[in-house]
Design a protein that fits this description.
Blueprint (H helix, E strand, L loop, with lengths): L8 E12 L4 E2 L2 E2 L3 E11 L4 E7 L2 H14 L7 H12 L15 H21 L3 H4 L7 E3 L2 E4 L19 H5 L7 H15 L4 E4 L5 H15 L5 E4 L6 H10 L6 E3 L5 H10 L4 E3 L9 H7 L4 E4 L7 H13 L3 E4 L6 H13 L30 E3 L12 H14 L6 H8 L11
Helix pairs in contact: 1-2, 2-3, 6-7, 8-9
The structure holds 2,3-dihydroxy-5-OXO-hexanedioate and magnesium ion.
The site of magnesium ion has 7 residues, from loops.
EC number: 4.2.1.40
InterPro entries: DgoD-like, Enolase-like_C_sf, Enolase-like_N, Enolase_C-like, Mandelate_racemase_C, Mandelate_racemase_N_dom
Protein name: glucarate dehydratase
Length: 433
């Protein structure tokens, strides 16, 4: 029997969108009232559509527009060829990941956008969910962790620092300020009550370490020893600070995420502190792995299919982690349901899943898929069983959120600029305490 010719890419639609994001504080500054995402839709010559979502950035969107011409006519099943074509065009980029908690590299984002949309199509053609294309489902539900942020009062979007007085439940709690340990505990209680999360992460690197460590002890006091806790100062601590507070938190932490900057500093802290160290900042690409293994910079890699070049690359990373005794979990950024669907398929396919994954999803209120917002049951999302990603693009919502993008005037994430609007003169420091 002759193999069938695969469907070929005939159209690529790239739509930047802006989604409402509350004033969340982090090491890089403050979230703008809108977070940017880019939605990519591939359409095949026989009219099948596949979608993906990546962090929004005008430079990356422009690179995607160049990729469009290179990819038209290629077989969606031939992901190796697609990768080769993209590597040949963008593989020499000199852009580095940068010092912020997010990633600036174009190639990994483009790979991710194209590969996920192709896998959505392949799933539709074969009648199988994406998790099956990644080797099959290891679990039916994928657990996520509560992701707490210090924040100013405010709802984001058009309301900015204002609030919607008619909001109820988590939609109301999400607007509250959280600027001290009591505020963090109140936020955690509201988020866990709504989503049923069974582990908790605090985004640190905002206040001096004593305050953030006190917040972790307050969470332990409020939730008891059965709820795993993590804190992520996004590499702002000095080695001695990380060792001091890392030791103090040994009895209460599941893992300590990126206390310090760089693999060497992480390795030094790891030798001194018993708690496992996790990273999405020092070992962030395949090129970083050899040194990570050589010097032992972390115990857990927080993968992110948007930054590691897609879902299949993330499976490769899982194999490397298994070989070298690293744990693997997942990092996130402000995102909608297309990204969440991809994260859930990947989470379901990973051979081991010892840690609940990160997600910013509770902080978002918009959605771009026809089924509406994903539901969490006891902190977990049920793996979609429909072909492909199992989500369909809501074209009306896409148009509205694209208009938000045009109106808001943002072209990339810049938390430093947003912070300066509130605290004039504030500057990002790569190591602060
Ligand atoms: O674990 C992390 O480093 C993140 O989740 C990075 C994000 O960019 C986070 O800092 C945020 O949303 O401000
Ligand atoms: Mg992190």
């Amino acid at each position: 029997m002759q193999p069938k010719a695969g469907p070929r890419i005939s159209q690529i639609h790239i739509t930047p969108i802006a989604i409402v994001d509350p004033p969340l504080l982090n090491a890089a500054g403050l979230h703008a009232p809108y977070a940017l995402r880019t939605v990519v839709e591939l359409v095949t010559d026989d009219g099948i559509s596949g979608i993906s979502e990546i962090p929004g950035n005008r430079d990356i969107d422009e690179a995607l527009a160049i990729a469009k011409d290179l990819l038209t006519g290629l077989d969606v099943f031939n992901l190796n060829e697609i990768r080769q074509v993209l590597s040949a065009r963008f593989g020499t980029e000199t852009i580095k990941r940068g010092e912020t908690p997010w990633d600036q590299r174009k190639l990994v984002h483009i790979f991710s956008a194209i590969e996920v949309a192709c896998m959505d199509i392949i799933g539709k053609v074969t009648g199988r969910p994406v998790v099956d294309l990644l080797g099959g489902k290891m679990r039916d539900r994928v657990p996520f962790s509560a992701y707490l942020f210090y924040k100013y009062e405010g709802a984001g979007g058009k309301l900015g620092f204002g609030i919607d007085p008619d909001a109820t439940g988590w939609a109301s709690a999400r607007q509250a300020a959280a600027l001290d340990p009591a505020g963090v505990v109140a936020q955690a209680k509201a988020m866990c009550a709504e989503f049923g999360f069974q582990s908790i992460k605090l985004k640190g690197g905002v206040f001096e370490p004593r305050q953030e460590v006190d917040a972790m002890f307050a969470l332990r006091e409020a939730f008891g020893p059965d709820v795993p806790l993590r804190v992520d100062p996004n590499a702002l601590w000095k080695v001695e600070t990380a060792i001091q507070y890392g030791k103090e938190m040994e009895p209460i932490l599941e893992y300590l995420e990126d206390p310090v900057r760089g693999q060497e500093n992480m390795a030094e802290v790891r030798k001194a502190v018993k708690t496992p160290l996790a990273t999405n900042m020092c070992t962030t690409s395949f090129e970083d792995i050899p040194n990570s293994i050589r010097i032992g910079s972390e115990d857990i890699i927080l993968s992110d299919h948007h930054f590691w070049g897609g879902l299949r690359s993330s499976m490769t990373l899982a194999g490397i982690c298994e070989t070298f005794g690293r744990g693997l979990s997942m990092h996130s950024n402000s995102h909608l349901g297309i990204s969440l669907a991809a994260m859930v398929h990947l989470g379901a396919a990973l051979p081991q899943l010892p840690y609940a994954l990160d997600t910013h999803y509770p902080w978002q209120s918009d959605e771009i898929i026809t089924q509406g917002r994903f539901q969490f049951e006891d902190g977990a999302v049920v793996v979609p069983s429909e072909p492909g990603l199992g989500v369909e693009l809501d074209r009306q919502a896409l148009a509205t959120l694209h208009q938000n993008y045009l109106d808001c005037g943002l072209t990339k994430r810049d938390d430093e600029v947003e912070m300066q609007k509130v605290q004039p003169g504030w500057t990002f420091q790569s190591v602060r305490w």
